[in-house]
Amino acid sequence: MNGQMDKIANYISPKTYIQHNPQIADGLDGLGAAMKAMGEKGMSMTYETIHKVLGEGNFILTMSEGKLGDQHTAYYDLFRLENDLIVEHWDVIAPIPPKSEWKNDNGKF
After folding, report:
1. pLDDT at 8
2. What is the DSSP annotation of 34-47?
3. Is the dihedral of CA 92, 95, 99, 101 positive or negative?
4. Which H or E run includes 24?
């Protein structure tokens, strides 16, 4: 959100937001608390490249890469929408090792 947390309710339902990441509580308060805790630890989470966006019905999957702290990271986010707002979120966050350590040439994307 580029530091614009006051606009988050334009994208995520303020009434119903189910978070399937076990480190983040449900609801906007849970998301806000998780972001605050990361900030207090000096931890940043950036998305630098969106590789793919797939949608079917009210589900959207994004496949992206960026950084979690200083670690090159792959992000797979699955969102369920209702009334044009995110009401549910699942994610997989995985480090991307240096190319010299890859076991194949496929990469994460």
Report:
1. 85
2. HHHHHHHTT--EEE
3. negative
4. none
pTM reported for the whole predicted model: 0.87
pLDDT of residue 5: 65
Query: Nearest to residue 89, comparing CAs of 48, 65, 61, 109?
Result: 61
Query: Token pair of 47, please?
Result: 């998305």
All structural domains of the chain, each given as residue ranges with its CATH number in brackets, are: 5-99 (3.10.450.50)
Q: Considering only CA atoms, which of 62, 96, 55, 94 is closest in space to residue 77?
A: 62
CA-closest candidate to residue 74, choices 56, 97, 104, 41: 97
CA 87 from chain center: how many Å? 14
Query: What SS3 class is residue 33?
Result: helix
Query: Percentages helix, strand, coil for the chain, rounded to the nearest 5?
Result: 20, 45, 35
pLDDT band at 52 (very low <50, low <70, confident <90, very high): very high
Residue (of 31, 43, 40, 39) closest to 68 by Cα position = 43
